[in-house]
Every structure is written in C-alpha cells, then in structure tokens.
Design a protein that fits this description.
Blueprint (H helix, E strand, L loop, with lengths): L1 H19 L8 E6 L2 E5 L39 H17 L4 H18 L2
Antiparallel strand pairs: 1-2
Helix pairs in contact: 2-3
C-alpha cells in the first residue's frame, strides 16, 4: 500500500509542478527578497541580432524608340487649265480695256494667269 500511495503522491506533485510553473515565470533573475518583496535583476545588455538590409538594384527599363517610316513627299500636280484659261481671259479683257495696246494685253494676261491658277486649286 505504501508503494501505491507514493505513486499517487508523485503523480500529484508532478501535476502541481506542471500547472504552477507558468505562474512562477519571469524575465529577470531572482535574487531573493529585498525589503520584503521579491527582487528581480534584469541583464544589463541584451543581445539583439540585426540582419543587415538587403539592397537589390531596381530593374532598368529601357524604352526603344518607335519605328520611323520614310516615304517620299507627296507630289501635287496642278492642272494647267485654270492658268491657261485665266491668261486667255485676262489678255482678252486687257486688250478690250487697253484699246489693243500690247502692255495692257500682257498685264491682263499675267493677272488673269495668277487669278486662274488660284481658282484651279
């Protein structure tokens, strides 16, 4: 009977110890009683391991210029019919107004060609 009672008390003591251990935990070292209260002493320097920062270079983004297309300049061909018709009309008007003088016919022809060219566009 003594053996059985010893086992029960041992299991009870282990259970009490396991349940009361978290209640007695603290951060510092216990140095006994100091003026009637428990006195805890914390270590003076704590070891802190700081990992150095890792620097990664930014990705370089390169934008290529867009494609360049070369084409010949557009060619505009003016129809000469407006210039010719304007010159003929200007010569007729200049000859009628200037009484057939060659200067009036030439001036009317040039002015009529310029006006006819502007109208044909």
């Amino acid at each position: 009977m003594k053996t059985r009672r010893f086992r029960i008390l041992s299991v009870a003591a282990l259970a009490l110890t396991a349940l009361s251990a978290p209640a007695l935990a603290h951060d510092g070292y216990f140095y006994g009683r100091h003026y009637g209260r428990p006195h805890f002493v914390f270590p003076s320097q704590r070891v802190v391991i700081v990992r150095p920062p890792v620097f990664v270079p930014r990705p370089v983004v390169v934008y290529l210029p867009g494609p360049v297309y070369y084409a010949p300049a557009p060619a505009y061909y003016a129809q000469p019919w407006g210039t010719i018709g304007g010159a003929i009309a200007g010569a007729a008007i200049g000859g009628a107004v200037g009484d057939g003088r060659p200067g009036a016919i030439a001036a009317g022809s040039v002015i009529g060609a310029i006006v006819g060219n502007g109208l044909s566009r």
